[in-house]
Design goal:
Blueprint (H helix, E strand, L loop, with lengths): L1 H22 L2 E9 L4 E5 L2 E5 L2 E2 L10 H5 L4 H19 L3 E11 L5 E6 L6 H7 L4 E2 L8 H13 L7
Parallel strand pairs: 3-6
Antiparallel strand pairs: 1-2, 1-5, 2-3, 4-7, 5-6
């Protein structure tokens, strides 16, 4: 059982260490604010956008169209918005976290693009996908894209969150 746990842990860490080697940037900080499901404030680094995922917005927007095409109503998206934000508040607010940056390191709004690692080693970006609280952001390439697509497919198969 311990061997299986170690193997599972390594399957998440090894691809990420390759990401860290490519970008070379690993930062530490404390989560002080949760804006929504995919954007947080991490002191002393400022606003951080969780790379590779997208969570529903607080209000109806043109970004709803992707999920509407998948059969998820705007009303359901607003529910998931709140669930994702609440999940982040409960899981990470006030916590010391590790950020691993990808390439590029910032988005067009100046936010850091990062994989956020919780104190227990789990990656928040992936956890949100596993719970069906986020979808993979397909528009850009990023280091963990294949792994994230697998996590999203698993959430869909198991009817979690958005996919219920």
């Amino acid at each position: 059982m311990r061997f299986l746990s170690l193997l599972l842990c390594l399957s998440f860490i090894l691809p990420l260490s390759a990401c860290a080697e490519e970008s070379g940037s690993v930062l530490q900080g404390t989560v002080t604010w949760i804006y929504d499901g995919d954007t947080l404030k991490v002191d002393p680094h400022g606003k951080v956008r969780l790379i590779g995922i997208d969570t529903p917005e607080r209000e109806n927007s043109k970004r709803d169209s992707y999920l509407i095409k998948k059969g998820i109503s705007a009303a359901r998206q607003r529910e998931i918005y709140q669930q994702a934000k609440t999940f982040n508040i409960e899981q990470v607010k006030g916590q010391q976290v590790t950020l691993t940056l990808d390439d590029p390191e910032r988005d067009r709004y100046g936010r850091l693009l990062a994989y956020l690692h919780l104190p227990d080693g789990r990656m928040l970006n992936r956890v949100l996908l596993e719970h069906g609280l986020a979808v993979v952001y397909r528009r850009f390439s990023f280091c963990m894209k294949e792994d994230f697509l697998t996590a999203e497919a698993e959430a869909m198969k198991n009817k979690r969150g958005l996919w219920e």
